Structure formats: C-alpha cells, structure tokens
C-alpha cells in the first residue's frame, strides 16, 4: 500500500489501459532498461487524500496521469494530476490517451469544413477521428490496411474509408478534392509508408500532423516536395506536463458531457491476473482489436 504525501491522493485503481508505447517494452526491445513498472492510463476511486488536498474526497471517481505503476490495486499520485470522472464508466475514462488526441487536434487546428485525411484507424486514430468530428470537418477520409478498423471508423462519423492494400489513398483523395488535396492530414501510425502517403495527399500550404510514435530507426520524407508544397508540419507529441494536463482536462470534460464516448473503441478487457494476455493481445492485434484495458476489480 503506497504512502501518500500531503499533496497526494491514494487511488484504488479500477482500470488501466495498455498503451502502444508499453507494448514495445513488453516485446523487450533493445535500449529499454528493466524492470519497468508500466501502466499510466489509470482511472479509479479516491481512497484517501493528503492533508493539503481540498479538491477531492474519498469516494470521488477520477482519471489520473501517472508516470507508471498503474497495473496495481492502488497508486499514489499528486492530486493536481487527477481529474473528476463523475458519470463516466471507469473502464472508459482513458484521460491520458485522450489528452494526446485532444492536443493533436487543437494544435493542428482543424477548421469548419476542412477536408481531413486520417492515416491509421487504430485506437489513437479513432480518438483523433472522434475529436475531428466535433470540429465540423468537410470530407473525412480514413486509411488503414485492416477492414475491421475501417468499419469502426465508418461508425464514428461519415467518412470515405480506404483500405490501402486495395486502393491508392492518393488517387481517392485527389478524386474527392478535385485534385487539390486535404487541408489537414493526420499520420497516426508511426511507420514509414503512411508518412510518405501524408506528403502525397495534402494540399499546398496544408497541414501535416505527425501523431504516430516513430520508434525504431530513422524515417525518410521527400523534404523537397514538403518544402515546395509549403506544408505546415505539426509535431503532435507532447512532453510538457502542463500541456498534457490541459489536454486531459479538455478530454475529461468532453467525456463527462457525453460529447464523446469510448465504448466502441475499448475492445478488449482483462483482469489483473491476465495482464500478460492483455499485452499479448495488444501486440498481436487480433481481428476487431483496438484497445486493451485491465480491470483491477475483475
Ligand atoms: Zn498511453
């Protein structure tokens, strides 16, 4: 049982999401030191509050930003890194990944009527898609190589889906935009081929947002073309805690208000005793998979 400081709260963890960045650690990739105490997508109920904590009381449901150790019955965390989750099912109160998606969409600044291309229809792609929908886009085109992922995307909002194994995304975007290209393209895969595609489908002076987590080696882009096309390139990766918390605050407000709902994108649930299977599932990505979460109460 962790001890708490005066500014901390003790959370009885209800759920912790399995993050793609942790699957890398689970695979044992080089350059990572072990042991690691993973788990940072925590939701739960406040069990105890520190002497200086006034904004929460025992029994309050919260989503929390923690740096690790979330696959546990209890975590201690600064109260300022917790946000209310009233009325939100705790297995769907995934504040931390939502923070990344909120910040990506806000920094990219999708405008009303923008034609938007989303490359990657995994969990993060779906979150970005849901938030783009709230912005009131024009046409939305979603690309992926998995039909089940594209079917989920079509349920999120009206969009043209492209299975890149069967169709050329560049051709579809050119056709739908009269040869102009997308106003905004989100690359949400973290691999090379979609990054190249992003440069091929974006209009002159349009925005390319890099949301994917580009691990494992360097990437190549046709910088001459990107430069000539005057792309606005947005690095949608956030490290500053203040920025992460701002995104999480916005994401939790949207969840509490019912503006977004994650019930269709949390696809696989496990108990703590099956945490290894939760990771294995996030690694193998079986048909129908978008996100694993681990429940401490199951
Ligand atoms: Zn995460």
From TrEMBL:
Residue ranges annotated for the Alcohol dehydrogenase-like C-terminal domain, each copy included: 125-223
KW Protease (keyword) present: no
Residue stretches making up the Alcohol dehydrogenase-like N-terminal domain: 5-85
InterPro entries reported for this sequence: ADH-like_C, ADH-like_N, ADH_Zn_CS, GroES-like_sf, NAD(P)-bd_dom_sf, Zn_alcohol_dh
Cofactor(s) listed in the protein's UniProt record: Zn(2+)
Gene3D superfamilies tied to this protein: Medium-chain alcohol dehydrogenases, catalytic domain, NAD(P)-binding Rossmann-like Domain
Keywords assigned by UniProt, alphabetized: Metal-binding, Oxidoreductase, Zinc
PROSITE patterns: ADH_ZINC
Pfam short name (any one): ADH_zinc_N
Example of a GO MF term: zinc ion binding
Keyword Glycosyltransferase: no
Recorded family membership: Belongs to the zinc-containing alcohol dehydrogenase family.
Protein name, per record: Threonine dehydrogenase and related Zn-dependent dehydrogenases
Organism: uncultured Thermoleophilia bacterium
């Amino acid at each position: 049982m962790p001890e708490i400081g005066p500014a901390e709260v003790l959370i009885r963890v209800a759920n912790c999401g399995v993050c793609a960045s942790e699957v890398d650690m689970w695979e044992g990739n080089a350059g990572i030191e072990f042991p690691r105490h993973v788990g940072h997508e925590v939701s739960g109920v406040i069990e105890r509050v520190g002497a200086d904590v006034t904004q929460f009381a025992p029994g309050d449901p919260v989503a929390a930003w923690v740096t690790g150790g979330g696959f546990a019955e209890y975590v201690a965390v600064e109260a300022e890194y917790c946000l209310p989750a009233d009325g939100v099912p705790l297995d769907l109160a995934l504040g931390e990944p939502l923070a990344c998606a909120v910040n990506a969409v806000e920094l990219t600044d999708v405008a009303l009527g923008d034609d938007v291309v989303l490359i990657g229809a995994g969990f993060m792609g779906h979150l970005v898609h849901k938030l783009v929908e709230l912005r009131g886009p024009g046409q939305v085109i979603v690309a992926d190589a998995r039909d089940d992922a594209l079917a989920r995307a079509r349920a999120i909002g009206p969009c043209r889906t492209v299975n890149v194994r069967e169709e050329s995304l560049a051709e579809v975007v050119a056709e739908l935009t009269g040869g102009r290209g997308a106003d905004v393209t989100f690359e949400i895969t973290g691999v090379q081929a979609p990054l190249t595609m992003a440069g091929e489908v974006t209009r002159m002076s349009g925005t390319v947002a890099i949301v994917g987590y580009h691990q494992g080696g360097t990437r190549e882009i046709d910088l001459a073309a990107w430069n000539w096309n005057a792309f606005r390139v947005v690095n949608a990766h956030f490290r500053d805690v203040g920025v992460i918390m701002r995104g999480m605050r916005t994401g939790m407000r949207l969840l509490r208000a019912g503006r977004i709902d994650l019930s269709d994108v949390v696809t696989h649930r496990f108990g703590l005793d099956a945490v290894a299977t939760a990771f294995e599932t996030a690694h193998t990505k079986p048909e129908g998979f978008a996100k694993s979460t681990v429940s401490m109460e199951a």
